[in-house]
Amino acid sequence: MLQQAFNGLVGGAFYALLALGLSVIFGMLGVVNFAHGAFYMLGAFGAFIALDSFGVNFWLALPIVPVVMGVVGVVLERLFIRRLAPLDPLYNFLFTFGLALILQDLVKRQYGVQSQPYPRPSALGGSVNLGLFTYPAYQVFVLAMSVLICGAVWVVLTRTRVGMIVRAATEKPELSRALGIDVARWVTPVFGFGIALAAFAGVLAAPMRAVNPLMGSDLIITVFAVVVIGGLGSVFGSVAAGFAVGLVSALGNYYVPSLSQTLVFILMAAVLLWRPAGLFGREEAL
Question: pTM above 0.85?
Answer without folding.
Answer: yes
